[in-house]
Amino acid sequence: MQKGMKLDEFLINHTNLEMAKLLLALAEGCKVIGRLVNNAGLNDITGTTGETNVQGETVQKLDDLSNKILMDYLTASETCAGYLSEENEGIVTLRANAPYTISVDPLDGSSNIDVCAPIGTIFAINERVSQLGAVTEADFLQKGDNTKAAGYVIYGSSTILIFSVGKGVYGFTLNTQDGEFRLSNIDMKTPEKGKIYSINQGNIGKFTDGMKNFIQYCVESDKETSRPYSLRYIGSMVGDVHRNLLKGGIFMYPANKGETKGKLRLLYECIPMAYLLENAGGMATDGNQRILELQPTEVHERSAIFIGSKNLVEKAHEFLKG
Ligand code: AHM
Ligand code: MG
Fold first, then answer.
1. Are the folds of 7-185 and 196-321 the same?
2. Which of 152, 156, 174, 255 is 20 to 30 A distant from 119 in Cα terms?
3. 121: Cβ below 6 Å to ligand 1?
4. Is residue 57 within 6 Å of ligand 1 at its C-beta?
5. In whole angstroms, what is the distance from residue 15 CA to residue 109 CA?
6. How far apart are CA 81 and CA 91, in angstroms?
7. Residue 237 beta carbon below 6 angstroms from any ligand 1 atom
8. To test ligand 1's pocket by mutation, which of 49, 207, 264 has the most ligand atoms within 8 angstroms of CB?
9. For residue 128, what pLDDT is reported?
10. 110 CB under 6 A from ligand 1?
């Protein structure tokens, strides 16, 4: 396998034709989103639409545009039966007789759009469980262990597609010379021992005692474990997880004291990232159980997440269990 290989060549050799078509359509859609993100300030597409989405959050113009672009490209793939998105209230049937469904956050970290910080598209692909015809919620409410492919595109200083079809994690950087996604990261492995922790520490007043104690552990000095660890937090899950995947670390969005769920969405934020990190040799849990073992019950449900290098996720667990 050679660096520089085009995405279509890679897919032909690593997955079936229908999945390859779906991933290529998704990648094409993300190229369009990437261009819009790069030029956002010039085209009056920064700021909000004035609407709120199904989760009661302000919709940014680019959230809405990205959602429409992905639906168009995935419909054109002819292999994507159904679409679940952070931006749509319900599931949508794109091609009644196609084999796969996709759950996406079209533009994650959208509060960072206007300030030029990295943002991304997150996705997970399942095989439908229903027979032909319109998709059903059961097609989407599958455990992460059933995932057939997942990943993200980060729109940062480069635009990079990181994904797995179950055997290794690969990265394709968008070559701005020829407009092709080209292989740049082969069989990615996250360091087993990380030294970065990523969390919105401003919320510390709402954290459980176990969570507070883990943060205290991260900031203490200890030569043997290279502490204190560095705190790095962009507020864009794609940016924070991408950095930690490469450098080693833990990203956390815990449940607040007295609550059981965190902020991030299980089907299109937590499961795709957990699938990737596990395929890269890392870990991902809700503080108790593997994310990929959780049985989703609602399409927009939320989960706490602790994801990254094994040493740090395991250490967080010790503190969370008290
Ligand atoms: P979004 O899907 O509305 O953009 O929200 C998800 C984002 C994640 O990218 C990020 O990790 C998190 O929200 C940050 O939340 P907070 O500002 O509470 O730290
Ligand atoms: Mg999001």
1. no
2. 255
3. no
4. yes
5. 30
6. 11
7. yes
8. 264
9. 97
10. yes
Domain range list for the chain? 7-185, 196-321
Q: What is the distance between the alpha carbons of residues 75 and 81, in angstroms, rounded to a whole number?
A: 8
Q: What is the pLDDT of residue 143?
A: 98
Residue appearing with tokens 């292989």: 183
Ligand nearest to the CA of 253: 1
Ligand 2 (ion): residues with CB under 5 Å are 105, 108
Half-sphere exposure of 251 (CA within 13 A, CB side): 28
Fold of 7-185: Fructose-1,6-Bisphosphatase; Chain A, domain 1 (3.30.540)
Which of 84, 237, 261, 267 for mutating ligand 1's site (highest number of atoms within 8 Å of CB)?
A: 237
Which regions of the chain are under pLDDT 70?
A: none
Confidence at residue 218, expressed as pLDDT on a 0 to 100 scale:
98
- The strands making up 159-164's β-sheet, listed across from edge to edge, are 92-93, 80-85, 100-108, 119-127, 149-155, 159-164, 170-175, 180-185
Peptide bond into 228 cis (omega under 30): yes
Q: Is 29 helix (H, G, I), strand (E, B) or coil?
A: helix
pLDDT at 43: 76
> What pLDDT was estimated at residue 9?
97
Q: How many helices (H) and strands (E) does the chain have?
A: 8, 15
> Which neighbouring-strand residues pair with 150?
124, 164
Q: If you classify domain 196-321 with CATH, what class do you get? A: alpha beta
